[in-house]
């Protein structure tokens, strides 16, 4: 009987911690993101993507606009389907888009992101 109560209390504790983490993740979203469809907690929008990919993106752009965001797992992807918006991204904001994301792996294995493959855009 004591073992069952111990397991139930441990399960309840894990459940409450998981709920708290999910609520914290949901409330600390990055601001100023393009609109996106609802996502699942771990896989993001991978359940929405069907073959062929260009038709799925076209249907999503019809619903959410020419610029929208998707999460593939934990990676955020912004999809731009308007030629004028693409031109603006690659002419006016090209330096911002040329940077590589700073991964934790690059910090520890690539000498604080200073190798040729991991270094951000700039003089280095």
Automatic annotation (TrEMBL):
GO terms for molecular function: heme binding; iron ion binding; monooxygenase activity; oxidoreductase activity, acting on paired donors, with incorporation or reduction of molecular oxygen. Keywords: Iron, Membrane, Metal-binding, Transmembrane, Transmembrane helix. The chain crosses the membrane at residues 6-23. The keyword Metal-binding applies. It holds the Pfam family p450. It comes from the Eukaryota. InterPro entries: Cyt_P450, Cyt_P450_E_grp-I, Cyt_P450_sf. Belongs to the cytochrome P450 family. This is Cytochrome P450. It comes from Lithocarpus litseifolius.
């Amino acid at each position: 009987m004591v073992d069952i109560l111990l397991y139930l209390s441990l399960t309840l504790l894990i459940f409450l911690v998981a709920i708290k983490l999910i609520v914290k993740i949901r409330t600390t979203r990055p601001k100023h993101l393009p609109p996106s469809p609802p996502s699942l907690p771990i896989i993001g929008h991978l359940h929405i993507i069907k073959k062929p990919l260009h038709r799925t993106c076209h249907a999503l752009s019809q619903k959410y606009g020419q610029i929208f965001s998707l999460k593939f797992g934990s990676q955020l992807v912004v999809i731009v389907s308007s030629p004028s918006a693409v031109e603006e991204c690659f002419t006016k904001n090209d330096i911002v888009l040329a940077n590589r994301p700073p991964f934790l792996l690059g910090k520890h294995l690539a000498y604080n992101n200073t190798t040729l493959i991991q270094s951000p855009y700039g003089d280095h």
